[in-house]
Amino acid sequence: MLKYAFIINSRTLTPENYSKEFSGPGFQGYICGVNTLEQACETAIKLTAEGFNEIDLCGDYGPEKAAKIKECTGGRVKVFYEIYTDGEEDKFEALPSLNPWGVIIQVGEQWKEDRYFILRSPEFNTHVACVEDLEDAVSAARTMQEEGVTFIELCGYFDQKKRDRIIDAVSGKLPVGYPVKA
Q1: Mean pLDDT of the chain
Q2: Which domain holds residue 156?
Q3: Domain count of the chain?
Q4: CA distance 180 to 130
Q5: pLDDT at 109 over 80
Q6: pTM for the whole thing?
């Protein structure tokens, strides 16, 4: 079973006030916000102890912070962090707001519950789509665009080529980040 988490860096959020667990056949997911690197490490340690095997970090992390978080897990968990390349970084930097934003997570199966949900707070409203495959992700990206999402980040399933399909789906109008391994 894949046990997957996405950690969002913020100014004010904590796992206690901004998180959601979701699951389906062969998949358990968790998404949360943290407001310090120490809190991200504590969360990663807790997730590792609970048997999580992959953690994705939002684009506010970079290689150094991601390496630190991976070190906190004892290297027992795959850790990815989002990057923006090929002009996506310029689109991201030009955003007037980072709210709302989207995360697309490939879960491998079609779910009936928790397929698309929104975590809400005064700081961030995060749209989360649990998708079956790349075509489902393309559809989710279009839905996010229609709902006013300002940028999209992708789970560890996505590489640059798959990211490009998402960029095409939103006609290049939203910055899209994809994960690289820490």
Answers
A1: 94
A2: 2-181
A3: 1
A4: 20
A5: no
A6: 0.94
